[in-house]
């Protein structure tokens, strides 16, 4: 549903850019800023202030690429903003509302909530 709202031409652009990024990673011409192992290591060491946690670690692919022609950079920015809003911010809002509802409806119970960092290993 989220992709349908974006429109076919932008979905195709996003898919092409994602494939190009993965091909570049596999070929070694693009370096990921961190790996899942990096995140686990810093978390296990209690190093939550590490440089790695200051990166944008969302699962939304970064379509912003300065090598794109200007009109494609605009498209990339629009897609990036749309995905962040739909896949990250709205998700966080929905989760927060669900947590608050559970807490209000079950004030006499204890809960443990675990939230992901929203990262993937490219």
TrEMBL record:
GO cellular component: organelle membrane; plasma membrane
This enzyme's EC code(s): 3.4.-.-
Record keyword Nucleotide-binding present: no
Coiled-coil parts of chain: none
Molecular function GO terms recorded: metal ion binding; metalloendopeptidase activity; Wnt-protein binding
Gene Ontology biological process terms, A to Z: negative regulation of Wnt signaling pathway; proteolysis; Wnt signaling pathway
Cellular compartment(s): Cell membrane; Membrane
Cofactor binding mode and count: Divalent metal cations. Mn(2+) or Co(2+).
Source taxon at top rank: Eukaryota
InterPro entries on file: TIKI1/2-like, TraB/PrgY/GumN_fam
Keywords: Cell membrane, Glycoprotein, Hydrolase, Membrane, Metal-binding, Metalloprotease, Protease, Signal, Transmembrane, Transmembrane helix, Wnt signaling pathway
Cofactor: Co(2+); Mn(2+)
Membrane topology label: Single-pass type I membrane protein
Pfam families linked: TraB_PrgY_gumN
Family: Belongs to the TIKI family.
Function, as annotated: Metalloprotease that acts as a negative regulator of the Wnt signaling pathway by mediating the cleavage of the N-terminal residues of a subset of Wnt proteins. Following cleavage, Wnt proteins become oxidized and form large disulfide-bond oligomers, leading to their inactivation.
Name used for this protein in its record: Metalloprotease TIKI
Organism: Callipepla squamata (Scaled quail)
Lineage: Eukaryota, Metazoa, Chordata, Craniata, Vertebrata
